[in-house]
Specification:
Layout lengths: L1 E3 L5 E4 L2 E2 L5 H12 L4 E3 H9 L7 H16 L5 E4 L2 E4 L7 H17 L3 H12 L14 H27 L3 H14 L4 H13 L3 H19 L5 H11 L107 H11 L11 E5 L6 H11 L8 E5 L8 H11 L11 H12 L5 E5 L4 H4 L10 E6 L10 E4 L5 H17 L3 H10 L4 H13 L5 H8 L5 H4 L1 E2 L2 E2 H10 L3 H10 L7 E2 H8 L3 H13 L4 E6 L2 E5 L2 H14 L2 H27 L14 H5 L8 H7 L1 H14 L2 H10 L1 H6 L3 H18 L2 H17 L3 H17 L3 H8 L2 H7 L3 H17 L3 H17 L3 H18 L2 H17 L3 H13 L6 H18 L2 H17 L3 H14 L4 H16 L3 H17 L3 H18 L1
Parallel strand pairs: 7-10, 7-11, 8-9, 9-10
Antiparallel strand pairs: 1-2, 2-3, 4-6, 5-6, 12-13, 14-16, 15-16
Helix pairs in contact: 1-3, 2-3, 4-5, 4-6, 5-6, 6-8, 7-8, 8-9, 8-10, 9-10, 11-12, 13-14, 16-17, 16-18, 17-19, 22-23, 22-24, 22-25, 23-24, 23-26, 26-28, 26-30, 29-30, 29-32, 30-32, 30-33, 32-33, 33-34, 33-35, 34-35, 34-36, 36-37, 37-38, 38-39, 38-40, 39-40, 40-41, 40-42, 41-42, 42-43, ...
Length: 1059
């Protein structure tokens, strides 16, 4: 697949252009192509698609566009999900912009090495990839506009270098037409004018070269108010003097505009206006501000021409009356930024956002543009701010002010103002004593200047209020651990962890030689151990460099134990633990305790009511403390469910929280908090079970529940109960393992049993079976027979859905025996409840009917009416499979009616499906349609299974009515969905319906054969016999009587075997 952005956006596969769909989808792909192989957050994409006012559903709409784009590309793996971000997988060879950069870089390398013909070929090939302006036709999207400007600038740099090469090869005459056109297209790029002048001069047209200079000077003065730069003036003087250095000694060794390194070869020969990368080196060249991955080198600094002096006509009264020497006529230009780090890696998207926002031209009377960068300790806020500030130097020629504000130990802004004023030329003796006067003088001095102010590690908005300039000509970057949402009009940039690929690049830049000798898997493991935190990665790299005897594998092993990982992430004065400690100290005592207790949980994320449970507090109280943790980036908000937030720890912060819990909480306090959290999950599973079935949990132990009302009240009334439970699925699995490790057998088996409702509906059979493993082992070790029996009875359902009928029957039998041993008659009856399912599926229909009626009576006697109704439904199914369709319809009608009355949503949906099929077999299509309407309205109760039931039943209804076209569409869509959900049984049913639809055609036989093959594969005797009957009928109709007879005999033999 080939992606093209150097011109109109295009994607080609196998040589053909793909239809990318709507303009929004095209824009989405274009933005992802700006950051190939890097995660791009959904909010960032939403802003790109809808601007500053996206709709409320923007993030969800982004998900929809991503889904559609995956289908258009024909490769679902192309766009990967990374939490709330998306990553487009693109090889460099697949993206024309990447190939362009690689070829241009190779051309620069060849030019530096003196291979001028090779350099010319490579640069020409790179430039030949351009089909027009980058992202042509996609205006109005700032990120694309910025990226297009950056690519255009790099293209012009490569073009200018290629022209330099041609000049050095003596091709000056051939360049004249091209350069004349280029100076017309880019009249403010002095380098192109210089190249045109040199080409004209070498072509013997000295007068035209001088005329070109006059045109260049006139254009620069008229359009930019500037005189030509020193380089262009020197070249003009050299042409006037006809200096020998302007004439090439030979085609291979002519005087170029740049020497081998890209720097000026001679101040008198038209010195280069480009650095090694081919980007503009002078602010006079018309260069655009740099984009995310490259910076335009700073222009020569010019002194401010505005003197800081008394007003016109005023004089100091006398030297004696002046306490300090008068200020200099030309105040200093402050350059207070720390050095930029040469190994800055990743965070390109945030860097682009900052530079784009602060590089815009604004008038002095506009509001000061402010970017507020927030993020957890060690995430790279300061590095990003300093890197951005260096990139922005050309836009703030009057200087850059910088101060560290102290974070958790906030510095007094009064003292910071004093340092800033001294940097601006105010003598120490002239500093105002009053804080407001200092602030006023500071803002007055900045009023007419282009000055960038960087305020690093701010405590809160109040600390920086007096440090903000009052002019739109200035810009501010402020960083802090807390989100500075109170800064009016500020651009808020939230900094997250590095992607794994960026983490590897950062490690390679710090410890490249050591990493080059390591196993790549060890390098990846080291990046994961550092959890994407730049500070941790920097410490790991420094440790490897400073300890030559350490291998990468040694450090990976040292960091492998999460309990001691923070001990290993320390190097001299750098320590991850100390970084977190600063944020922890600023919390209130209650928030600190919540932080510690939440760190005990293994759940990957959790809602507010989990925090309430560990604290044993009201949810509203816990919510306020969670907000406090989020504000200082000790906790992340990762997703929302029904507009309710979920929270997650960064891996290293979780380790720190657990350290604090072990140091500050007693073992009893820690276990009590966990038991409350587990109890909240048990309360939730009970709530969802009741919502789905209309009755209480069938089997329940003695594990405590934590405030069921508090938990259930935390959810919106309209929320789908199954989705509520799905949101807690990972937390449930983590809690099962944690309870098992703690030996809490009663809690463990009840948590495991609580997953049945979810995993059965979602057909998550592997997760269902795996969830029971630790609980079964623990209950067996602890001698907890009730727990064992309950789990075995439920596990029968897993085996049943996997078509492992012998194992399902064995689980039921073992569960019954255990319940009998402890004298639990109710448990025994509930374990028997699963047997009719197994017998129906195995084709033992007479047994199923007899046993089902017996168990129904037992459950009714024990008052378990809902369970009795479930068993009665299996009797109806057995009657339907046995061909007693009228009796089946009567039973199923009764079941659905009683389920409606009791609110058992599961039985309403499931048995409306079977009732619809019975009525269709009886030719009662109107009544079947009513059952299908009931099924369709509530299909989501059973998740994917409900949707498949509805698709199959609707297809059968349309077929019965003779609407073959619509039936074919409905059944084909259902078949595709069944394959997607790996529901083989439903595939068999739909294929048999399709064989009816295409009866008399070859396609009908093919569908029946496919159904037969699937039924055989899953050892389903009932459906194997049914498919053989269908095939016999179709073969006979096609005249193949021998094959029909064979199929019929085999079907009869199967029925005889299963009874």
């Amino acid at each position: 697949m080939q992606f093209a952005v150097l011109g109109p956006l295009a994607v080609r596969r196998a040589g053909a252009d793909l239809d990318l769909g709507t303009p929004k989808a095209r824009t989405l792909l274009a933005v992802l192509l700006c950051y190939p192989g890097r995660p791009v957050s959904a909010p960032f994409l939403a802003e790109a698609l809808w601007g500053d006012e996206p709709p409320k559903s923007a993030v969800k709409n982004v998900q929809t566009y991503v889904h559609r784009l995956r289908r258009r590309l024909g490769d679902p793996e192309r766009i990967a999900s990374r939490g709330r971000a998306y990553l487009l997988r693109v090889d460099r060879a697949e993206l024309d912009a990447a190939r362009f950069r690689d070829l241009a870089a190779a051309g620069r390398t060849a030019e530096t090495a003196g291979d001028l013909p090779g350099a010319g070929r490579l640069l020409s090939e790179a430039l030949g990839l351009w089909r027009g302006p980058a992202f042509s036709g996609m205006s109005g999207v700032p990120v694309l506009t910025a990226e297009a400007a950056r690519l255009t600038e790099v293209r012009l740099g490569a073009l200018e270098l290629r022209i330099d090469v041609d000049l050095r090869l003596g091709r000056h005459a051939a360049l004249l037409g091209e350069l004349t056109a280029l100076t017309g297209e880019h009249p403010l790029r002095e380098r192109l004018w210089a190249q045109l002048m040199l080409a004209l001069y070498r072509s013997g047209r000295r007068a035209d070269a001088l005329e070109a200079y006059r045109r260049a000077r006139h254009t620069l003065v008229e359009q930019a108010g500037l005189d030509p730069g020193a380089e262009l003036r020197h070249l003009h003087q050299a042409i006037l003097a006809q200096e020998d250095t302007l004439n090439p000694a030979s085609p291979q060794h002519g005087t170029a505009l740049a020497g081998p390194s890209g720097e000026a070869a001679s101040s008198r020969s038209g010195a280069a206006l480009a650095g090694p990368s081919g980007e503009a080196a002078s602010s006079r060249s018309g260069a655009a501000p740099s984009g995310p991955s490259g910076a335009v080198p700073s222009p020569p600094e010019e002194a401010d021409s505005t003197p800081l002096s008394p007003q016109d006509g005023e004089e100091p009264s006398s030297p004696d009356e002046t306490a300090a020497p008068p200020p200099e006529r030309r105040p200093p230009v402050p350059r207070m930024l720390p050095p930029a780090l040469g190994d800055f890696t990743g965070q390109d998207m945030e860097l682009a956002e900052i530079t784009a926002w602060l590089s815009k031209e604004r008038s002095p009377d506009e509001a000061t543009p402010v970017v507020a960068v927030s993020g957890r300790g060690g995430v790279g806020k300061s590095t990003l701010a300093i890197t951005a500030a260096h990139r922005l130097r050309p836009d703030y020629a009057d200087g850059q002010l910088y101060a560290v504000l102290g974070g958790a130990r906030p510095h007094d802004p009064y003292a910071v103002l004093g340092r800033f004023l001294r940097a601006l030329g105010v003598p120490a003796a002239a500093l105002p004593d009053d804080a407001d006067e200092r602030c006023g003088l500071y803002r007055s001095l900045l009023a007419d200047r282009r000055m960038l102010v960087v305020l690093d590690d701010a405590w809160d908005e109040g600390q920086i209020a007096s440090l903000l300039p009052g002019s739109g000509g200035c810009g501010v970057i402020v960083t802090g651990r807390a989100r500075l949402g109170g800064l009016a009009g500020a651009r808020l940039v939230e900094l997250g962890e590095l992607a794994d690929s960026d983490g590897e690049r950062l490690l390679h830049r710090i410890a490249g030689a050591k990493l080059g000798q390591a196993d790549p898997q060890d390098v990846r493991s080291l990046v994961r151990a550092c959890a994407g935190l730049p500070l941790a990665l920097r410490i790991a790299g420094s440790l490897l460099v400073s300890r030559p005897h350490w291998r990468v594998a040694d450090l990976v092993a040292q960091l492998g134990d999460a309990r001691h990982r923070l001990d290993g992430l320390r190097y001299r004065d750098l320590a991850v633990r100390a970084s977190f400690e600063l944020s922890y100290r600023r919390l209130s005592p209650a928030a600190r305790r919540l932080f510690r207790l939440l760190g005990l949980l293994e759940a990957p994320d959790f809602p507010a009511w989990t925090a309430a449970a560990v604290l044993d507090a009201e949810t509203a109280r816990a919510q306020g403390l969670l907000d406090e943790l989020v504000d200082v980036n000790l906790l992340d908000v990762v997703t929302t469910f029904e507009a309710r937030a979920r929270y997650r720890f960064h891996d290293l912060i979780r380790a720190y929280a657990r350290e604090r819990a072990e140091a500050e909480e007693t073992p009893e306090q820690r276990e009590e908090a966990l038991i409350r959290a587990f109890g909240a999950l048990l309360a939730l599973t009970g709530f969802v079970f009741r919502a789905q079935t209309g009755y209480d949990e069938l089997t329940r132990g003695d594990a405590p529940r934590w405030r069921p009302g508090e938990v259930t009240g935390a959810f919106p009334p309209a929320a789908d109960p199954l989705s509520l439970l799905a949101a807690e699925g990972p937390a449930l699995l983590a809690a099962i393992g944690q309870a098992a490790d703690l030996g809490l057998d009663e809690i463990c088996w009840e948590l495991a049993l609580g997953t049945e409702t979810l995993f059965q509906a979602r057909r998550s059979l592997d997760r269902w079976e795996n969830a029971y493993g630790p609980a079964l082992a623990l209950t067996e070790t602890a001698g907890n027979k009730r727990g064992q029996a309950a789990l075995l009875a439920s596990l029968a359902g897993v085996h049943f859905m996997r078509r492992r009928f012998d194992l399902a029957e064995d689980c039921c039998t073992r569960a019954v025996r255990l319940f009998q041993e402890i004298g639990d008659r109710m448990g025994e009856a509930q374990a028997l409840q699963y047997l009719p399912y197994v017998l129906v599926a195995a084709g033992r229909l007479s047994e199923a009917i007899a046993l089902g009626l017996e168990i129904r009576g037992l459950l009714t006697e024990l008052g378990q009416t809902s369970s009795a109704l479930d068993v009665y439904a299996q009797v109806g199914r057995a009657l339907l499979e046995d061909g007693r369709t009228g009796e089946a319809a009567g039973v199923l009608t009764e079941v659905v009616a009683e389920a409606e009355a009791s609110g058992n949503r599961v039985l309403i949906v499931r048995d409306s499906y079977w009732l619809a099929l019975a009525r269709l077999d009886l030719g009662r299509t109107a009544e079947a349609e009513a059952a299908i309407a009931t099924l369709s309205a509530r299909a989501e109760v059973l998740g994917a299974t409900g949707s498949l039931y509805a698709a199959h039943a609707r297809g059968r209804l349309l077929l019965a009515r003779g609407d073959h076209s619509e039936a074919g569409w409905q059944l084909s869509a259902g078949l595709e969905a069944a394959r997607g959900h790996d529901d083989v049984l439903m595939q068999v049913r739909i294929l048999l319906a399709l064989s009816d639809l295409h009866a008399g055609q070859v396609e009908g036989i093919r569908h029946a054969e496919q159904a037969l093959g699937l039924a055989r594969d899953m050892n389903d005797a009932v459906n194997t016999a049914r498919a053989l009957d269908r095939l016999a009928r179709l073969r006979a109709a096609a005249g193949d009587h021998d094959a029909a007879a064979r199929a019929g005999r085999e079907a009869a033999a199967i029925r005889a075997r299963i009874g």
